[in-house]
Amino acid sequence: MIERMTAVLDAFETPTAHRSLEDVMRHTGLARSTAHRILTTLTQLSWVRRTSDGYALGPRSLAFADWEHTSMDLRHTAGPVLHELQIATGMVVHLGVLKGAHVHVLDKLGGRFAASVPTRVGGRVPAHGTALGKAILAWLPPEDVEVSLRHQMGRMTARTISDLNVLHQDLRRVRERRGLAFEQGECFTGVGCVSSAVIGADGPIGSISVAMPPQTPLEKVAPLVADASRRVSAELDPRRTTVPTPDSHPLHTWSKETLDSILATSSGRWM
Known about the structure:
Layout: H1 2-10, E1 18-19, H2 21-28, H3 32-44, E2 48-51, E3 54-57, H4 59-89, E4 92-99, E5 102-109, E6 124-126, H5 131-137, H6 142-149, H7 164-176, E7 181-184, E8 192-200, E9 203-212, H8 218-236, H9 256-263
Antiparallel strand pairs: 1-3, 2-3, 4-5, 4-9, 5-6, 7-8, 8-9
């Protein structure tokens, strides 16, 4: 069934393509009843939508295609900058994008420390437990953060922030540092990380990080990470003369419930 559904989706060669039932039958070789049944299922799941002359790709397909296209552009543009950052630091450099409650790793450049960082290109890490994720989350309205993470804040290590209110406070500190996010052993024991978001026309589209052994001072490489993210942001939008930081980015107004919850929280983890 999955192979047949994939074959049906492949009949729409471009995002704007429109296909009749007969078109889909010819492209896939499926019987009319089978093609119609699969198209009905895909329509119910929003992968396909009905049109006046047949079918077209639905919002779920278009959103996925747009995300893939943006990610490919980001990886291509960031490549040379990531290479320079890895050479300058000698550490492990990551490029990631936020999708839901996780950061998907688009690129990873090694170094002598690479084997100690259990990440891989194509893999994903929890956004709330990584500098990669927190650098992006700091740009988002608090309510959006809560919707994405409320039931996704599991612990990876003893240092992982698993309380939503404490995370909000940590993201406030990221904004105060003009977008620099830090973490020490929150995702992987013995790994420290500093990250900064890459900013597109409509806000954060990814983040760059450097991972290193815990004894290495993160502040030492933080300016290099911030400069790398600014350079990639400028490459993606050359018309912009300055790259904003999250402390200057207009966030949505915090709801009274969110603000009261944060102010009521007390934790020794806060700085």
